[in-house]
Design goal:
Layout (H helix, E strand, L loop, with lengths): L8 H50 L9 E2 L34 E2 L6 H9 L3 E5 L5 H14 L10 E5 L8 E5 L2 E5 L4 H11 L9
Parallel strand pairs: 2-4, 3-4
Antiparallel strand pairs: 1-6, 3-5, 5-6
Length: 206
Amino acid sequence: MTQQQPSSAHEKLDRRRIARQARQRAARKKRRTRIIVSLIIGTLVLTAIVLGIRALGQGPVAETADRIRITDEGRKHVSEGSNPTYSTNPPASGDHYPVWSRYGVFREPVEPGYWVHNLEHGAIVLLYSCSNNCDTVVAKIEEVYSSLPNGAFGEIKMVATPYVGEFKGSFMLIAWTWQEPFEIFDAARVKKFYSDFVDRGPERAP
């Protein structure tokens, strides 16, 4: 007759210890996997944010025959009513007043000291020059202005103003450190430039 041997208490304890260690190893592996995935996602998000900020600050980088990049002349505040000077005229950066222009289409010239500040905020400036048929020119500008989308702060960020001075062409689109002159009014060109550069100035502000 074969005698049945009872299970050893030590064997039971060993099996429990082995099972517990296996669960602990699985839990540690799961935690490591979560940490690695989180680090990868965090790195991707951070990279996207950095690239996005860089894109907002620079705008399109490719120059064309008509779209010209202008040297950055800084962005220092000067007293309102003073006469800031610029290396490039019309300016696309540089000294400006502490206050900026309201947005819209103007029939009387807005001083550069105001609208250069708008450029700093990522706004678009449209300069125009007309000696006759100015009502027609302004009407065309107002029509395209009303069709533009709002910027990041809930308003159309464009200042359209006559310019006291000379510039190439009859119209000039300006963003911070960018200019695009043209002779015949082109609504599609205005919309494209606005889309390319709005809210891409060095300062994120209305």
